[in-house]
């Protein structure tokens, strides 16, 4: 009986100590403390996204540093993306920065819009939702259009579709142009 109460007291003491230590060192994620293998797609305790940067020294040696970006994650903080989401969404942990250009790649968008990614990886979906919005594309509609209308959706991303009109005369109206979609192999 004494051993049960001693182990219980020891467990409570260890738990209390863990809370004290966590409180004294902040207990949250700081991008600058993350390594190359956990930086990309992480979110700090201040809700800022982490970004991986590469530096090449004069000797040719490459070093990687994780930095805090100015981009805020919507309703997320203290988040390191799990390997299942990285794989399901077709991403690479060692990516150096991201851009909306990846939304033009059919293999990537197919994975991003898959049930495994879209329904289970809120951090990644939030990130690409904001990237798509910056291009004037609503990601849920874009994903819905995958398949039959995927080429059209990608063409809309590639071009805003608006061209400034030339000098106006009677009967002239602004013209809306679309770029031709890239040729893609059938699924």
In brief, what are we looking at here?
The protein has 187 residues and is of the alpha+beta class. The chain has helices spanning 2-25, 83-88, 106-112, 115-118, 122-134, 139-144, 150-158; strands at 48-56, 62-72. 37% of the residues lie in helices and 11% in strands.
Secondary structure topology:
Layout: H1 2-25, E1 48-56, E2 62-72, H2 83-88, H3 106-112, H4 115-118, H5 122-134, H6 139-144, H7 150-158
Antiparallel strand pairs: 1-2
Largest sheet: 2 strands, antiparallel
Q: Give me the secondary-structure category.
A: alpha+beta
Q: Please list the strands of the largest sheet in the order they lie side by side.
A: 1-2
- Over all CA atoms, what is the radius of gyration? 24 Å
- Poorly predicted regions: 7-25, 159-187
Tally the helices: 7
Detailed description of the structure:
Residues 1-26 form the signal peptide. Residues 159-187 are annotated as: Disordered. Keywords: Signal. This is PAR1 protein. Residues 7-25 and 159-187 have low confidence and may be disordered. This protein has helices at residues 2-25, 83-88, 106-112, 115-118, 122-134, 139-144, 150-158; strands spanning 48-56, 62-72. 37% of the residues lie in helices and 11% in strands. It folds into 2 domains: 28-80, no CATH class; 82-164 and 175-180, no CATH class. The protein has a two-stranded antiparallel ribbon with strand order 1-2. The protein is α+β, with helices and mostly antiparallel strands and 187 residues long. A hairpin with a 5-residue loop joins strand 1 and strand 2.
